[in-house]
Every structure is written in C-alpha cells, then in structure tokens.
Amino acid sequence: MAQKKNELWEWVKALFIAVLLAAGIRYFLFAPIVVDGLSMMPTLHDQDRMIVNKLSYKIGEPERFDIVVFHAPENKDYIKRVIGLPGDHIEYKDDTLYVNGQAYEEPYLEEYKQQVIDGPLTEPFTLEEKIGRETVPEGHIFVMGDNRRFSKDSRHIGTVPLDEVLGQTSIIYWPIQDIRIVE
C-alpha cells in the first residue's frame, strides 16, 4: 500500500512540474496566436495560427519589417509589421515608403500592388499628419498591416509603446498546408 502511495505521489509531482514548465514556456518564451482578420493579407491569412517569440524583444528592440504582436488600445492583440523605429521620420508618397528621406522597397507588397488598379495601395501620408509628430517617439514603433487599404494600424491608433509589444512572429504552424516561415 505504501508503495502505491509513493508511486502516486511521484506521478503528481511529475505532472505538477510538467504544468509549471509548460506555463513558464508559454508565459515567458513562446505563445500561440491566431490571426484574426485580413489586415496582413497577402502575407498572413485569417485564422492562420502562429508562434509568438516573446524572448525576441526581451533581448533587444524590433527591427524594421519584423512582424510583431502587441496589445492594442481595444484590449486586443494585433499582428502588424514594424515600419518605423524610434527617431524615424516616416512618409509615403507614390506608393513608396520613405524612412528618413530614403526610399525602401517592400517586396511583401508587390503581389498586392500589381492587383490594385484604382490608385495606390498605400495612400500618401506623413508621420506628422498621422500622429502629430515628425518622428517616431523614443520607446515606440510605427506599425502597419500589409493589407494597407484595410488595416487598422499606427495610422489610426498611433505609435505602439515598446512595452506593449509581446514579441515577434514568423512561424505559421496551422493550417498544415500553409506551414512556413514568413518574412
């Protein structure tokens, strides 16, 4: 009888440790997230399931064009692409991104740009028009969805504080036929 109690106790301890490890990994390192909506089309699709690397931003700041997950003002988590870093001057004209006066290519938008026939994919704007400042504030990033005409992003909600960024995401794990690393 004592041996069965001891064996049960060992199983309970093992289960408890497994639950703690799983919770720790999910809370501090990696977490699943579901894409909700079309704002990142064609890169991400509605209901794609991804892994958020939370450790990525504990080490350093995001890089331009990273896809990040952050807490949005509506108590939702958004998935968007980093366009502007702290101190950057952002402007769009003639469907081209200019950062600090330098034109940047956005190859992830080429598919959509070729499909649009009734004007630019990204309406022209300056950072000052959208957030009332000439540069992205320190400790913030400027984010946009790849589906520029149908994305609620920094043009509407303002810049995102870095402490609201959960992490970077680049791995789609579901649906199975769409498993890939996105850029």
TrEMBL record:
Q: Where is the Peptidase S26 domain?
A: 8-174
Q: Which Pfam families match?
A: Peptidase_S26
Q: How does it sit in the membrane?
A: Single-pass type II membrane protein
Q: In terms of domain of life, where is this protein from?
A: Bacteria
Q: Does the keyword Cytoplasm apply?
A: no
The record's comment on protein family reads: Belongs to the peptidase S26 family.
Q: Known SUPFAM superfamilies for this protein?
A: LexA/Signal peptidase
What NCBIfam families would the database entry show? sigpep_I_bact
Catalysed conversion reaction: Cleavage of hydrophobic, N-terminal signal or leader sequences from secreted and periplasmic proteins
Compartments, as annotated in UniProt: Cell membrane; Membrane
The main place the protein resides is: membrane
The top EC class is hydrolase
Instruction: Spell out the GO cellular component terms annotated for this protein, sorted alphabetically and separated by semicolons.
Output: plasma membrane
| GO molecular function terms attached to this record | serine-type endopeptidase activity; signal peptidase activity
Supply the EC number(s): 3.4.21.89
UniProt entry tagged with the keyword Membrane: yes
Active site: residue positions: S39, K80
Q: Where are the transmembrane segments?
A: 12-35
Which GO annotations describe the biological process of this protein? signal peptide processing
Keyword annotations from UniProtKB, A to Z = Hydrolase, Membrane, Protease, Transmembrane, Transmembrane helix
Q: What is this protein called?
A: Signal peptidase I
